[in-house]
Design brief:
Shape: elongated
Order of helices and strands: HHHHEE
Strand order of the largest sheet: 1-2
Low-confidence stretches: none
Oligomer: single chain
Length: 100
């Protein structure tokens, strides 16, 4: 038995058992990793086949700006009954706005 085994109070039989458990756990993790890599590849293939619409609108992937404003304008084009109204909260003093 090595001096390291003695320092931690493990007998040779204990060490063999711990090594076997660790090897078994590693084998299980290897199987799980293989499964997850295959699943990830399949999901990426599905996303690629679905095209850019599956990733989401372009403006959602970039910081808000002109593209976001354009998208909102397109959504509400022709809506004469929708406009922004600004108000101030009497409780907090914050000013806010919302669609009316």
């Amino acid at each position: 038995m090595s001096s390291e085994a003695h320092q931690h109070g493990n007998s040779a039989a204990d060490l063999n058992r711990l090594i076997a458990q660790a090897e078994k756990h590693l084998a299980q993790l290897d199987r799980e990793r293989t499964y997850l890599l295959k699943r990830l590849a399949a999901l990426r293939e599905q996303r690629a086949a679905a095209g850019p619409a599956a990733v989401g609108p372009q403006w959602a992937q970039k910081p808000p700006g002109d593209e976001l404003v354009s998208a909102v304008r397109r959504l509400f084009r022709g809506r004469e009954d929708v406009y922004a109204q600004r108000w101030e909260s009497s409780k907090t003093g914050r000013s806010e706005s919302g669609g009316v």
